[in-house]
Amino acid sequence: MAAEAHGPTAGEYIVHHLTHLRNKELTGPFDFSVVAWDSMFFAILTGVVGCWLLWRAARRATSGVPGRFQAAVEILVEMVENEAKGIVHNAQSRKLVAPLALTVFVWIFLMNAMDLLPVDLLPVIWEKIYGAAGGDPHHAYLRVVPTADLSVTMGLSVSVLLICLYYNVKIKGLGGWVHELFSAPFGNHWALYPFNFLMQVIEFVAKTVSHGMRLFGNMYAGELIFLLIALMGGAFSLTGTGIGLAIGHIIAGSAWAIFHILIITLQAFVFMMLTLVYIGQAHDAH
Would you say residue 134 lies in a domain? Predict the structure, then answer.
């Protein structure tokens, strides 16, 4: 007798949804040839959408009574500009830093917002496309939330680090910055130079790692909770019993999605504010 077909277990379902679409299997912790194509695709897609939205708002801006979309964008731009003024006191630097902060907020918000899509919507579509192309649908992996990928969030935080290093050199000069690396925070004495340099390196590393890990941890946890809620509905659809599971699935999914709107907005805001703070610190002399 042939074995009875059955769906994936809860563990298999979660592991499948948390596996990236890659060009090959991961062979080591530092195998940089492995590319998460799904994270790259949706990060670029949301970036293009964010640029288009801001371009559309600028193109349709009017000096008269603004529409709701223009008013919302103007409030956002004014908020970011005010935050930049309060943190980065160099007016020349703000010409780049303020638009950068706005871009960071919009881009991360859109990447986070991918978590509000039904967890099985795009993966199921991808499985059908992958299967139609001759592939095994069971190996059609797809993750649609770029900020739930550590490589994306750390890439963003490293980019912020490079910008901070640039402003350290631009504002203080290469010699001034190198002098600061060895003279702060304990004082300008030759015996303290190694300790000062070590503390400076630790500070740069700690800020960069915490910057990326904070965003990743929150979005990864949110994605996992959506998967657990989806399992409630999946259990009901497979067994046809336990109406409480279906009701709980709808209530829990709706409640978490509404609360998650706050999370995705807050995480984008926090990442933007930390970007401004770190760049502002690069302008300050110790």
Answer: yes
